[in-house]
Amino acid sequence: MSGEGVERLLELLVSRGGGQYGYEPVSQLAHALQAASLAEAAGEGAPLVAAALLHDLGHLVDGSEVARLARGEDDHHELRALRLLKREFGAAVVEPVRLHVQAKRYLCALEPGYLAALSEASRASLAVQGGVMSADEAAAFIRLPQAQAALRLRRYDDQAKDPSARSPEADHFLPHLRRAQAETWTPAATPDSLSAQTGATP
Ligand SMILES: [Fe+2]
Ligand SMILES: [Fe+2]
Fold it and tell me: Residue 52 Cα, ligand 2 centroid: separation in angstroms?
């Protein structure tokens, strides 16, 4: 764990987050700040606020999202930043991020009206992300230790696409990141010890 690590993650978000969030009407940074604000307003603890802020960091370490979607490919963005996140945080942050795409697939299967209410861009990416979960996939998903946190993160994610929303500056969330780091990081959460990097189910 490095004390400056969370500051570097925030810098990465701010410096690279100015670009458009896929086909959504907000920037990556605005989307991240809105998601984190919604989590904070809902009374979430620091780990889920941090997860909400950083859930799409994978888009920023790669940047090929639009090109990949245009080619009909999944960019696997929920996995691309896990190595960075696992240096600073434990499962309460890392796992909701890793699972936030699966959470969408789960809600599409289980919640009437959820799929229809998704943004057009989110419905388009669903197809390349595996589509609606089967009953077996949904049953396996909901048994995962961080499944409920991932579902809550998904709600904030879905709502965080409002071009007129006002959010705090990124620095507002630095204390949340530090607290999340202090609360969740353990020596067991080193980069090679979680199966998350490969996407394998723990
Ligand atoms: Fe995402
Ligand atoms: Fe997102």
Answer: 8
